[in-house]
Here is the input.
Amino acid sequence: MDGNEQPFPPAPKPGPVSDTPSADESQLPEKHQIQEEEIPQPVATIPPAPLCASPAAAVPATMVAAPSPRFNAGFKWFLFITLALLVVCGVSFAYYFLSHPDTQGVSVVRMEGTMVTGEFYDDEYIGSEVVGRDLREAADDPLVDAIVLRVNSPGGTPAAAQEIIGDLEYAKSRKPVVVSMGDMGTSAAYYVSAHADRIYANPDTFTAGVGVIWKFSDISRWMEKEGYNVSTVKSGSKKDMGSTSRPLTSDEEEYAQKVVSDSFETFISDITSQRVIARSDIEDGRVIRGADAVKINVIDELGNLNDAIDGAKRLAASRSKPSLPGLPS
Here is the structure.
């Protein structure tokens, strides 16, 4: 014994079995008579193990919970789906870079048509919000190193140009922005282009055309000849200024000229602040061929869209090189 075991009491030895009750047993009532088969036999029981079991005691195998088959199956599916997504993403990236080797790292944003404010575009017009959104998305895209703004526009409203300039400046603060001009990049389109880091154009691209114009039509004499008459009730003397049913008054012409002159001053001052251009070279509002524009710094270089993309890559590479003390950046 180790001290924890307890001895069992000795089992009583059974006496001789007799079918006839003894004299004493016959005197007892039936309910007090003890039947031999009802006497419980001693059963050996194992005392419970101590509460503080030995650390070295082996844990029965039946106490280890087997892993759930459902959990294993779910985890396998999770791994399979994750690996499949990684493979798909890898193939997609590989396909993109292999199918666009020329524009790798460069986003081409298009500004084609007459510029107006708003979020729409068609064959004739381009909305400022469309161009602005594309510029900002490219600026925030970590896979884009530089942006090329492809311009093919005769211009548009000053307000549309100013909205696009705001988004172009946002993009330029994050990565290089280069302009590539197609057939035309004049007036308000050049207003926008002047804010880029570099401008490319073809030898016969029409550019510059810096100026503001406000047109008024007068068909009053034709209406009088045809017998048309228009009556106007207005709150101010200039409220119907620009109506085709009458010519401008001298006061209205003076006011219109002031609006145009103020807008032009903002226009040309902004351009000359962005580029080293003599005001006298562009203030007459004429369009200039690309071959002549490069001579007076209206554009930077002659070239097509691919040349602009290559130039944008070079700018991005030069900016990404770390500059060390004592070494040129």
About this structure: The radius of gyration is 47 Å. The first strand starts at residue 106 and ends at 112.
